[in-house]
């Protein structure tokens, strides 16, 4: 799947077919996760893959009774090791960098799953203490997210999510300065993603018009 198409079509999926996800696909998804950037290349992420029905039910209760945690064929709990980042970057590494790095790994995983025809949901609402007890996670390790994973139920297509136009939340030079040079293409495809060569040609045309 082409990268922009993969980004555009990714949605949170909460209904899954009752069939297993092959281990090789799970491996590809985690491999994609560890390709993410991390501060100082410290790679503070760790992953726990859960397929056991009893454990998934316990995780579902810990995740505020979100049923799709129990119903998904696979659950991946993504953790961060704050001390890996903290040893090099102090409190900022412990409190921020390890979370940023792990979040980047999670997004890689979600996009890879989408490209493989799988559905995911990124869950952050859970009782971390209970999750750590269920999975025997050491105190020094932080549970950052739960990812549910499976083949989406085909007749339950996730809805299209609206997005705030980026020109409303992007500034040039300093906060509050409008993103005024954005070119508008019309309502159906406002900001068309085109090859760099096409943008260069259009820029040449504009410069030529200005010289006249």
Task: Provide a descriptive summary of the structure in words.
With 212 residues, the protein is an alpha+beta fold. The protein folds into two domains: 3-150, NADH Oxidase; 166-211, no CATH class. 43% of the residues lie in helices and 13% in strands. It has helices spanning 3-9, 23-33, 53-62, 67-71, 82-115, 128-135, 196-211, and strands at residues 45-50, 74-80, 119-123, 142-150. It is globular and about 75 Å long. The termini are far apart. Mean pLDDT is 89; it is low at 185-189.
Brief digest:
This protein is of the alpha+beta class. It is built from seven helices and four strands; from the N terminus they run ααβααβαβαβα.
Helices, strands, pairings?
Elements: H1 3-9, H2 23-33, E1 45-50, H3 53-62, H4 67-71, E2 74-80, H5 82-115, E3 119-123, H6 128-135, E4 142-150, H7 196-211
Antiparallel strand pairs: 1-2, 2-4, 3-4
Helix pairs in contact: 2-5, 3-6
